[in-house]
Amino acid sequence: MTETFLIKYAEIAIKGKNRYLFEDALVRQIQHALAKIEGQFQVNKEQGRIYVHCQTDYDFDELIEALQKVFGIVGISPVTVLEDTGFEDLARAVVAYMQEKYPAYQGTFKVHTRRAKKTYPMESMEVSSELGGRILEAFPLAKVDVHQPALLLHVEIREKLYLYSETIPGPGGMPVGTNGKAMLLLSGGIDSPVAGYMIAKRGVTIDAVYFHAPPYTSERAKQKVVDLAKEVAAYSGPIRLHVVNFTDIQLYIYDQCPHEELTILMRRYMMRIAEHFAKERRCLGLITGESIGQVASQTMHSLAATNEVCTLPVYRPLIGFDKQEIVNVAHKIHTYDTSVLPYEDCCTIFVAKHPVTKPNLKKIRNSEKKLEEKIDEMVAEAIRTTEVIVVE
Ligand code: ATP
Ligand code: MG
Questions:
Q1: 391 vs 221: CA distance, rounded Å
Q2: Atom 10 in ligand 1: residue holding the nearest Cα
Q3: Which residues does residue 41 pair with via DSSP β-bridges, in sequence order?
Q4: What is the position in ligand 1's atom list of the atom closest to the CA of 184?
């Protein structure tokens, strides 16, 4: 059983002081992910490398699955760790490693040595070619190919010696916690959980807000959003989900304003309330699952009308995606099956037959004037009565 895993991460964007912030965040996120699975693990940062040491029994697939949810990880390599007791022992261990992992190997291979310990008596090239020779002796049908080997055996010489030949892909991205925080407008649909996942992948911590309209939307509709938040939290870490009771505001808009403008007006109030919580939580932006032209409220005109009320940047990572592309990601992150459960949504309940697709901003502002008498108090009340659920 492998006891140690080498965690590979992209090093390009993390020069200088940012590097240790990136690495520390990555270590924290790995620890967080592994705390949820069976077994005891130690996550160490050693000489510009991150290792996971397994201290008890564990389930290999479960461990890999957990690590594949940690943004910032590019690859996961099971490594064999050896004490440095001289080259002859290393050569024997390399042959034994090959025999165990690739019995009777007949393909092409290459040994790649990295010598971080400069006091080691042999140079990297020499170690590689010597070990290559020993492998050929033990596996006479194997062949060296230095350009496109089917098997690349890595040997790292540090205080200890590390052998590995396999890299399981990680999710990429940047560790959550390295890029501030944003407030996700999370509905029960397909798009917004994907949008949250994509922004979290860039290292952003996520909080969320859901607009609930009881009794028009049920407890089950709310539970569905909690379940979606849980799926996103598997990648992003804990999410503080704000559940806003939006019923009175929706009914008031419905009573006072032209129905074809309903969705846009509702959206504008959602954005205002989301922004309130965003500022309270020190978020640097809002996130939505909008994509140009997907529905009437997502035409360029409609997006401009919604956007007008926001002072924080609004991040719309799906803006150029087709529905199928969004669905593909939803499947990948396991939100799809929950998203398509047929519970009502506060937007569909009050939706007009012919919503405006080119809202006129002057008209929209005029319609909002009709709400002046009560709307501020209603928004304040919605904020006061918001329920916060920590989802992890
Ligand atoms: P989704 O699949 O995310 O529900 P959608 O294609 O259904 O998106 P809309 O219903 O027009 O599109 O919603 C656009 C965006 O507005 C959503 O992606 C989400 O970010 C936000 N949103 C919509 N309804 C709600 C809600 N009830 N609570 C919180 N955010 C919402
Ligand atoms: Mg929706």
A1: 16
A2: 347
A3: 54
A4: 20
* CA 327 – ligand 1 centroid, Å: 15
Q: Does the C-beta of 211 come closer than 6 Å to ligand 1?
A: yes
Does a cis peptide bond (omega within 30 degrees of 0) precede residue 140?
no
Q: For residues 175 and 179, give the distance between their C-alpha atoms in angstroms, rounded to a whole number.
A: 8
Q: Which two tokens stand for residue 59?
A: 């389930």
- Please state the pTM of the whole predicted model: 0.92
Q: What CATH number does domain 181-391 carry, 3.40.50.2300, 3.40.50.620, 3.30.70.60, 3.30.310.50? A: 3.40.50.620
List per-residue pLDDT tens for the chain, 392 residues long: 679 999 999 765 566 777 888 899 999 999 999 999 999 999 999 877 899 999 999 999 999 999 999 999 999 999 999 999 999 999 999 999 999 999 999 999 999 999 999 999 999 999 999 999 999 999 999 999 999 999 999 999 999 999 999 999 999 999 999 999 999 999 999 999 999 999 999 999 999 999 999 998 999 999 999 999 999 999 999 999 999 999 999 999 999 999 999 999 999 999 999 999 999 999 999 999 999 988 888 999 999 999 999 999 999 999 999 999 999 999 999 999 999 998 777 666 677 778 888 999 999 999 999 999 999 999 999 999 999 999 99
CATH class, domain 4-169, is alpha beta
Give Cβ neighbours of residue 56 (< 8 Å, ≥ 6 apart).
Answer: 39, 40
- Delimit the domains of the chain by residue range: 4-169, 181-391
